[in-house]
Amino acid sequence: MITLVLGGARSGKSEVGERLAGTLGPDVTYVATAVIDPTDDDFAARIEKHRDRRPPSWVTVEVGADLPAVLAELSGPVLVDSLGTWVAACADTGDPDTGDPDPDALCHALAQRTGDTVVVSEEVGLGVHPSSDAGRRFRDVLGTLNRAVADVADEVLLVVAGRVLPLARP
After folding, report:
1. Predicted local confidence at residue 94, as pLDDT
2. How confident is the model at residue 39, as a pLDDT?
3. Model confidence over 53-69: pLDDT tens digits?
4. Does domain 2-167 have CATH number 3.40.50.300?
5. Which residues touch 163 (CB under 8 Å, ≥6 apart)?
6. How far is CA 97 from CA 91, 93, 132, 148, 162, in A?
7. What is the C-alpha separation between 41 and 122, in angstroms, rounded?
8. What pLDDT shows up at residue 38?
9. Is 32 in contact with 79 (CB distance < 8 Å)?
10. Rounded to an integer, what distance in angstroms lies between the CA atom of residue 114 and that of residue 128?
């Protein structure tokens, strides 16, 4: 089973993803896509909050652009947090022509897994129009990626202000 949990900044999406993953058993693999050294205190504090919420039985695996390959090797329940930081990690090491992540490779890896997977991602298309080319590109790449993952997901949830809304297939 693949569950995609979408939400905006500070919506509670990661906590919802963690609660869902916690129902899958005690031995969850937490796949952290923010492997960069935090460049500011706020980002460092966010990472620390995520670490503090994880049960001691969970194993953490940090990945960069190699997320599809890592997912293909993992068994058992997995929580991926988050696709937005994966897109950012791919900016330097993704497709050599565009710097974009490969949605097909990610969706294939998700669909081939034998364990349940919860994927957390930022829904960036609901906010302010980005003022830079890089911001618009990030929004568009992540939006396309979210849609591709939603297509292979069994369940898609939108978290708004801490409330969870199930999204129906079109």
Report:
1. 58
2. 72
3. 888 999 999 998 899 99
4. yes
5. none
6. 11, 10, 20, 20, 38
7. 21
8. 65
9. no
10. 38
CA distance 25 to 3: 15
Residue ranges of the chain with per-residue pLDDT less than 70: 35-38, 92-98
User: Quick one: pLDDT at residue 22?
Assistant: 96
The catalytic position among 14, 20, 50, 79 is 50
**108 in active site:** no
Give strand ranges (E) for the chain: 2-7, 29-32, 59-62, 78-81, 117-122, 155-160, 163-167
pLDDT at 40: 78
Closest Cα to residue 108, out of 154, 77, 152?
152
Q: How far apart are CA 144 and CA 141, in angstroms?
A: 5
Strand-pairing partners, residue 156, are 4, 167
Write down the pTM of the prediction: 0.93
pLDDT value at residue 130: 85
| 37 CB burial (10 A radius; 0-12, 13-18, 19+) | exposed
Question: Where are the domains positioned within the chain?
Answer: 2-167
Confirm if 14 and 119 have CB atoms less than 8 A apart: no
